[in-house]
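hi! just following up on the protien thing from before. the input was this:
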Amino acid sequence: MSGGWNTIESDAGVFTYLIEKLGVKDVQFEELITLEPDELKRLGKIYGVIFLFKYPTGETRSDTPKDGSFDHEAASNIFFAAQTIQNACGTQALLSVLLNKDGEVDIGKDLKEFKEFTGSFPPEFRGETLSNSDVIREVHNSFARSSPFIDETQRTATEDDDVYHFIAYTSINDTLYELDGLQPAPISHGPCTPSSFPDKIIPVLQRRIARYPATEIRFNLLACVQDQRIRARELGDAEALEEQEDKRSAWLWENALRRHNFVGFVGELMKGVTKAKLLQGEKVYEKWVEDAKGKTRKRIEDRRSKGIASDGVD
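and the predicted 3d structure came back as:
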């Protein structure tokens, strides 16, 4: 098997540049803040949505899903891959949308060849082939946040960890499908044309979220849509085009920062600050340390007075 897959963030900029690096053209992701059909419709051409949620610990497969119905026949007629490796579900979810839209979207040479190669495979073999794809894995890992403390390729989740999972929803052959690699087959949520997708998907997502306690708010929803710059040019909206270009620049900067860890930089900075304080004399240094301790104690006392737990040092 190929090397490990690192964790990537559910972030519109990460997903947009990840698919561009895979060769997909004229597609981007947009984060959705509210579950309103109009918010989806204002984005123009929509290919699907990616939903991130906390996976219930101890949940097992069932012969019937909690919502919708399994479509075992569709598993061989559309692109559906079983998830066979940890941390790959984000990329697997976006591929579940795009590889089922290759008639509408230019998915690029590498993904087209991957889809053709796995076309006759059952879901389990598709999942294994995806997990062992060096091209897709290396692009995926290039967007992982750098960490000097944890080797994400070796670490496995424990029962005490919060485990999050990505799934895809899209309209295929005028049916709304939920594509979850941890399920035995695509889940059908009934008739749905591409134009009716915004109205059909929202109730499905609302029912999904309703399974959780009202206090659970750790969800994220990304829409896979046509590059918003294309729409802005078609409408002649110079302001919207400039806004989209600025957004792309910000995404590039954020993605560049993700590739670096700053522990060495912070360490050197602290050394420099400490050296400067020492050069000012022992009394100045001691006052600096005592001031820092005082601020820490005040923060702890303030948190305690508000009933917030703290692991601070007195």
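The two ends are 49 Å apart (CA to CA).
The chain has two domains: 12-258, 263-305.
cheers
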